[in-house]
Write a structure and sequence with these properties.
Elements (H helix, E strand, L loop, with lengths): L19 E7 L5 E7 L1 H10 L3 E4 L4 E4 L8 E8 L6 E7 L19 H19 L5 H8 L1 H21 L2 H22 L3 H17 L1
Parallel strand pairs: 1-6
Antiparallel strand pairs: 1-2, 3-4, 5-6
């Protein structure tokens, strides 16, 4: 699903510095990851590339998060608060956000390993879809398009079903995670976000509770 561009006219940048604070939240887990600053150029580059950029106050220049460490932030949404003087960025972190190696700038967020792993996987797949590196099987799936990805999901689902009834639990687990991986590839191709999945599951939970 295509992201709506940020309404620049509603933003209130600091008159002296031209900056606006930006809070970063993990799109999959809801954890607050970091606080940084953006100017118009950082917003432009973030929306254009899909990777979060900031303005470094210490260096006085544009800063792509993860440019040195590789721990990039892949944009899901960018929104202003009610007064237009702060931004909320929802993103998938490719790795630890803090320079100390912690998952957030406030230390470990205590997020369940599954949620954190899925968020980091989503970030990696967004990168594969954008860069299409040679030699990457996943990138080749993205090159072939939606039909090939959907076919792969079907193949993995069948292999899981067969393993569940005729093979070991360990083999079924391997097929299960292959299917989950393929489903996240498909979600990346379709532009389905974590919020979309949560909303749809909540609807199905409500139906289940009514039966």
């Amino acid at each position: 699903m295509k992201r709506a561009p940020l309404d620049r006219g509603a933003l209130r940048f600091d008159a002296a510095t031209g900056l606006i604070p930006a809070i970063v939240q993990d799109a999959a887990t809801g954890s607050v990851l970091m606080l940084a600053w953006m100017d118009g150029e950082a917003i432009d580059q973030t929306e254009r590339t899909g990777e979060v950029h900031f303005h470094s106050r210490s260096r006085g220049e544009l800063w792509r998060k993860g440019a040195t460490s590789g721990n990039t932030l892949h944009l899901v949404s960018l929104a202003a608060d009610c007064d237009g003087d702060a931004l909320l960025i929802q993103a998938h972190p490719k790795g630890p956000v803090c320079h100390t190696g912690a998952s957030t700038c406030w230390g470990s967020d205590g997020t369940a390993p599954l949620a954190r792993t899925l968020s980091e996987l989503a970030a990696l797949l967004a990168e594969r879809k954008r860069d299409l590196p040679a030699g990457s099987y996943t990138a080749e799936l993205f090159r072939k398009g939606r039909g090939a990805i959907a076919q792969k999901v079907g193949e993995e689902a069948l292999e899981l079903a067969l393993a569940a009834v005729a093979e070991s639990t360990e083999r079924a687990l391997s097929e299960y995670t292959d299917l989950v991986y393929s489903l996240v590839v498909l979600a990346t191709e379709l532009g389905i976000t974590a919020d979309d999945v949560v909303r749809s599951l909540a609807e199905k939970k409500a139906v289940a509770n009514s039966r």
